TrEMBL record:
Deoxyribonuclease which catalyzes (in vitro) the decatenation of kinetoplast DNA, which are circular DNA catenated to each other, producing linear DNA molecules. Plays an important role in chromosomal segregation and cell cycle progression during eye development probably via its DNA decatenation activity. InterPro entries: DNase_TatD-rel_CS, Metal_Hydrolase, TatD-like, TatD-type_Hydrolase. It comes from Psylliodes chrysocephalus. GO terms for molecular function: 3'-5'-DNA exonuclease activity; metal ion binding. GO terms for cellular component: cytosol. This is Deoxyribonuclease TATDN1. A divalent metal cation 1 binds at residues 117, 225. Signal peptide: none annotated.
Length: 308
């Protein structure tokens, strides 16, 4: 297979609504808002599109608003499993909450490309019980079916239950994002026709690397899950990152507009994820990148005209 001439990226999961991009960390203002500079670094790094994650009703509104400011930005609409109590706490109840999610999708036109982030998280049931998570995950699956949009799925220590729900709905499209489970669990989701999203949290351990190595090339998508999931020196995959993609960073207290902030991930670091994948899979990095790019178009943008 010949090498591609242009390396192109799409970050399928960027939490650009996070307050860190407004310079606020744990409620404390540390520097000026710098989302414009973050995006500028992203485009220079080769990103052609970024999908902004909606984690609840408020974030879904904000994600859509940000996406409408730039042709290369898109968004998701949904409620993270650890925040599903919001359905029942919402003024007007769960039906009203669901309707407002629908309203965002309807007003988003071609900007909303997925339902989510939704799914199950059994590592943090102190925030939301399993029962509530299960109930409102299935409710969000109805949004996927009604709007013919793929699912942007969250799964933490809940692969069996997630699979058992999804298998009840034949024909669903989607991606299990930030995948950090076993080869066997990956295969179950792949058998449903789902894609697997790989980011820094997917590449922490040697077992993670073996899972990434096993994935079929036509089912891999790339993401950063920024500002989270940075790849640290202690991670198994770190040694495979090329020096040119280890960009300098400064502490947030010493912020400047031209540098990354230490421990705050950005979409431009998607190149690091690709570096690791290409090395552990022993594949040409440009060819791998182009295959993943085409996978992403197929899942999220197959019905859109502005996909070049």
């Amino acid at each position: 297979m010949s090498r591609s001439k242009i390396v192109r990226f799409i970050d399928i999961g960027a939490n650009l609504t996070d307050s860190m991009y407004s310079g606020i960390y744990n409620g404390s203002k540390k520097h000026d808002p710098d989302l414009i500079q973050v995006l500028d670094r992203s485009w220079k790094a080769g990103l052609s599109k970024i999908i902004i994650t909606g984690g609840n009703l408020e974030e879904s509104k904000k994600a859509l608003e940000i996406s409408q400011s730039e042709p290369r930005l898109y968004s998701t609409v949904g409620c993270h499993p650890t925040r599903c109590n919001e359905f029942e706490e919402h003024d007007g109840g769960a039906d009203s909450y669901l309707q407002k999610l629908k309203d965002i999708i309807n007003t988003g036109n071609n900007k909303v490309v997925a339902i989510g982030e939704c799914g199950l998280d059994y590592d943090r049931i102190q925030f939301c019980s399993k029962e509530i998570q299960l109930k409102y995950f299935e409710l969000q699956i109805t949004l996927s079916k009604n709007f013919n949009l793929p699912l942007f799925l969250h799964c933490r220590n809940a692969a069996e239950d997630l699979y058992n729900i999804l298998v009840k709905y034949p024909g669903l499209k989607g991606v299990v994002h930030s995948f950090d489970s076993s080869v066997e669990e990956a295969k179950k989701f792949l058998d449903l026709g789902l894609y697997i999203g790989i980011n820094g949290c997917s590449l922490k351990t040697e077992n993670n690397l073996q899972t990434a190595k096993s994935l079929p090339i036509d089912k891999i998508l790339l993401e950063t899950d920024c500002p989270w999931c940075e790849i640290r020196p202690s991670h198994a995959g770190y040694k495979y990152i090329s020096k040119e993609n280890l960009l300098p960073s400064v502490k947030k207290e010493k912020w400047n507009s031209t540098s990354l902030v230490k421990s705050r991930n950005e979409p431009c670091n998607i190149k690091q994820v690709l570096d690791i994948l290409a090395c552990v899979r022993n594949e040409d990095i440009d060819v791998l990148s182009e295959n993943i790019y085409e996978n992403t178009l197929q899942l999220f943008f197959s019905s859109k005209t502005d996909v070049l």
